[in-house]
Design brief:
Length: 105
């Protein structure tokens, strides 16, 4: 499981969110983006590098219309979802404590 940013193979932008491994899926309830037309294609040539349908909460970010605050907010929401899935608030608190420790250096 990851919080990831996958870039479009044609350079149009990226898709970000809480996601699972394409080569070792863990059964997360993901969104099937490939069922409809998509602006940003993050599938590679192999099944193990196909990420379009691997996001729980995918959000597209176009290169020419990138809003950094929206991207950072979505990453924060995605991190919350991931940490909640992995162990709830205790894990989140531990993670945030570690982040603060490294940021102080």
């Amino acid at each position: 499981m990851y919080v990831s940013i996958c870039f479009d193979k044609n350079g149009k932008g990226a898709v970000a969110g809480f996601s699972e491994s394409a080569s070792n899926p863990q059964g997360l309830k993901t969104v099937k983006r490939s069922d409809k037309p998509i602006n940003i294609d993050v599938d590679g040539p192999k099944k193990s590098s196909s990420f379009n349908d691997g996001f729980v909460n995918p959000e597209e970010f176009l290169k020419d219309k990138l809003e950094l605050s929206r991207l950072l907010n979505h990453i924060s929401i995605s991190l919350d979802l991931c940490l909640e899935h992995l162990g709830g608030n205790n894990l989140k608190i531990h993670f945030l404590e570690r982040m603060l420790y490294f940021l102080q250096d």
